[in-house]
Amino acid sequence: MQTLLQFFTISKKHKLQFFNRYLKNWNKTGLTVLTLFLYNTSISQTILDTTNVKMNKEVKGVLLDFDSNTPLPYANIVLLHKNTGTITNEKGEFKFNITALHKNDTLSFQYIGYDSKNIPITQLDTVSIVYLKENTYNLNEIFVFTNDLNAESIVRKVLKKKESNYKRNFNKSRTFIRKRFISDINNIHFDYKKSSFPELNEEMIKKIERKIPKHSVSFTDFLGDLYFSNSNVDSLHLKVDPIKMVSLKDKNLADVEQLESLFENLLKNTEEKEYWKIKSGILGGKIDYSEDTNKAKNDSLKLLNEREFKTKYYRNAINYSLKYSSFNNKKDWDFLYHTGKYEYTLVGGTVINGEDVYVIDFTPKKGGKFEGRVYIAIKSFALIRADYEYGQGKTGTNINLFGIGYTKNVFNGSISFEKKNDLYQLKYCSKKVGIRMKVDRNISLIKKRKRFLLDKKLDEVKVRLNLSSSEEYSFEILVLDQKEISNKQFKDFKQKEFVKLIYVDQFDDQLWNGYSIIEPTKQMREYKKQ
User: Fold this and answer.
1) Residues 388, 389, 394, 399: what is their CA dihedral angle, to the nearest 10 degrees?
2) What is the CA radius of gyration of the chain?
3) 436 and 489: one domain?
4) Rounded to an integer, what distance in angstroms lies between the CA atom of residue 246 and that of residue 375?
5) pLDDT of 400-423, one tens digit each?
6) 394 Cβ partners below 8 Å, 6+ apart?
7) Which of 170, 176, 246, 398 has the smallest number of CB atoms closer than 10 Å to its CB?
């Protein structure tokens, strides 16, 4: 008994010495008991070390719907009483570093339309599954509706109230943005027909076929402050102040640049009144090429090699992505603009940040494309959240004509707003688009000279192109914090000319230590540049 008491009170180092000293003298039963004891002691010590901030620890897991067992994407995970948190990714996965936390700290898991769950960090395993229960109530028990107020009429009011609900003041937003692009060429074949260019002979055409990347992945993670202006006088309504930017671009730049230089040399060898045209049957168009465009491209490559590029280019890309949250694109928001194409069901109500909200499901009728769920504020008719995708068997643009096939076969959209000072401000949004392409046509690259009546053909290379490919593009925008600023503060901020990039071969958690970002998916985390 005394020996066991000594064992409880000694340090880890002395426990090992104790174990080694008595190991040979223990029978099999005694060894088993001691082994189990050491294992339990180790676990207890690990928990103590975590809660007392002695080890670098993190909890990982997935957030699921209690009834359907499906992931809850883009849910908020907040450290209570402290201004920090994270968000689940598109698969409901999360990760939270608890190294600097106290044993009494609590994480709150929050998802619109669901009951929140608060869990002390001591109750979270290294890998945890957290379930939330949907929270909807019967509206008829609380409200008396008029006959003309139904689910479809509620949805129609979103656009009517858009200007008053989403008007943007001058503000500064700390924002995380992730963009991803995946390209797969399933089949590509050039059937050589003819060429008057010595550089583009049959051997070179086959080399081009081999060198074109068959699979490529790229992603860019951006963290920075976005400055917004609502003034009609300002020429710029968005300025960008980057904090960190990490990028993986998976393609063989040497091979691709070699092929690009071949075509550049051809295009550069163009005299006055000469021009280039690409043609496929009756379809065709001129190639816009000049020394200025070539210089701009070379400058872009130079900046790429120096691991920086002009901030204004990325600002324009951010601006383009943010347009999704404005509801202006009628194709993306078809269920708001063309309500007659959809069947709407008033599921019930819920409370979001103290505000009563309609919960409405919708499915496509003839002509409709999307299915999903929206949350609309009862008093203001603001759309607070939407999650939707193509309905079963539905696609976007679908062309199959003259040997060209183009189908937009994937669309996933998600968006959420927070109410501040009677206005609704973007909290996050995500959009994923997938495209399938097929080409089976003769393609010609032609050099011509302008003449009075009929332009003269000087040179031509002609191939039969057989191509099938798929692409997927997505972006995610998470607003971490925002505050109002004055017109003067907006004008006084000077955007840097260049933004620096950190290029990586694989996702690296160390680069984002101390920052709040969207948890990368397992596929993205494990992918390594080839």
Assistant:
1) 120
2) 30
3) yes
4) 34
5) 888 889 999 999 999 999 998 889
6) 364, 368, 369, 370
7) 398
Q: What are phi and psi of 497, to 5 degrees?
A: -70, -35
Q: Note the pLDDT of residue 56.
A: 52
Q: Do 197 and 146 share a domain, yes or no?
A: no
pLDDT in tens, 178-214: 999 999 999 999 999 999 988 889 998 998 888 888 8
What does DSSP say about strands 58-65 and 127-132: parallel, antiparallel, or unpaired?
parallel
* Start-to-end Cα distance in the chain: 60
Same domain, 516 and 406: yes
Choose the final residue of a domain: 51, 67, 88: 51
| Number of CB atoms found within 10 A of residue 495's CB | 15
* Amino acid identity for residue 310 in this structure: K
Q: Do 155 and 274 fall within a single domain?
A: no
CATH number for the domain that contains residue 141: 3.10.450
Given pLDDT bands bounded at 50, 70 and 90, which one contains residue 461?
very high
**Structural contact between residues 490 and 229, judged by C-beta atoms closer than 8 angstroms:** yes
The C-alpha atoms of residue 204 and residue 212 are separated, in whole angstroms, by 12
pTM: 0.77
Say whether both 191 and 310 belong to one domain.
Answer: yes
Rounded Cα distance between 431 and 421, Å, is 27
CA distance 116 to 131: 10
Give the CA dihedral 307, 309, 313, 319, nearest 10 degrees: 50
**Angle made by CA atoms 428, 431, 432, in degrees to the nearest 5:** 145
Number of structural domains, the chain? Answer: 4
Which amino acid does the sequence have at 75? A
Domain that holds residue 510: 166-331+396-526
Say if CB 360 and CB 378 are below 8 A apart.
no
**DSSP 8-state symbol, 509:** G
> CA 116, CA 81: separation in Å to the nearest integer?
15
Instruction: Quote the CA–CA distance of 143 and 523 in Å, as a whole number.
Output: 46
The answer on 502 and 401 residing in a single domain is: yes
Instruction: Look up residue 253 and give its two tokens.
Output: 């730049």
The predicted-structure confidence for 82-139, as pLDDT tens digits, reads as follows 767 788 888 899 888 777 778 788 889 998 888 899 998 888 877 789 999 988 777 7
* 12-51 confidence digits (pLDDT tens): 444 344 334 433 343 433 333 333 333 333 333 333 333 4
